[in-house]
Design a protein that fits this description.
five-stranded mixed beta sheet; 9 strands; two-stranded antiparallel sheet; 6 helices; about 35% helix; alpha/beta; Glutaredoxin
C-alpha cells in the first residue's frame, strides 16, 4: 500500500551519490523534502524526468524544498549519472537491502526489481503533504511538483 497524504514518512538512512549518507529525518528538519523515486539511472524516461527537475530547480530552491532522488542503483552509478547530467540535488541509493525504502513507501515493483515513478512531498514534521504516482509508461508532470510546493 502506497504511503498517503497525512501519513508519517518512513525514515531511512541511505548512501548518497556524493559519498556519505542521507538520513531523511535530519533532512526534513531543515526544510521540506521532495522525495522522488525513479526506476533506473541512465534510462531515457528517468533521465527526462530528472532533467526536468534539474531545469526547473529554481522552483524548489525558491520554496526551500530539498529534492532527493532515490533508486535501486548503486551509489557509484548514481554518482556517474549525476556528473554526466549536472544534477544539483541529492541522489540516494536504495540498492541494499534491495528496494527496502521503496517497499516502505509502497512503491517497490517486486516483479521488476525497481521503484515505481512516485514522488512524496514531506514537510518539516515528517508528514507527507503530496503524493504523485505516474501511470505505467508515463512521466510525472513537472506541474504536479509546482502544485505540491504551492500548497505548503
Amino acid at each position: 500500500m502506497t504511503i498517503e497524504i497525512g501519513d508519517q514518512a518512513p525514515d531511512f538512512t541511505l548512501p548518497t551519490a556524493a559519498g556519505g549518507h542521507l538520513t531523511l529525518s535530519e533532512a526534513w528538519r531543515d526544510s521540506p523534502v521532495m522525495l522522488v523515486f525513479f526506476p533506473l539511472a541512465f534510462s531515457p524516461r528517468c533521465q527526462e524526468e530528472l532533467c526536468a527537475l534539474r531545469d526547473d530547480f529554481p522552483v524548489f530552491e525558491d520554496a526551500s524544498v530539498r529534492v532527493v532522488g532515490i533508486s535501486v542503483d548503486s551509489p557509484h552509478a548514481l554518482r556517474a549519472w549525476a556528473a554526466q547530467q549536472g544534477y544539483r540535488f541529492d541522489l540516494v541509493s536504495d540498492f541494499w537491502p534491495h528496494g527496502e525504502v521503496a517497499g516502505a513507501y509502497g512503491v517497490f515493483l517486486r516483479d521488476r526489481g525497481v521503484a515505481d515513478r512516485a514522488s512524496f512531498l514531506i514537510d518539516r514534521e515528517g508528514v507527507v503533504r503530496s503524493v504523485v504516482v505516474a501511470q505505467p509508461g508515463t512521466s510525472r508532470p513537472i506541474g504536479a511538483y509546482r502544485e505540491a510546493i504551492a500548497a505548503i
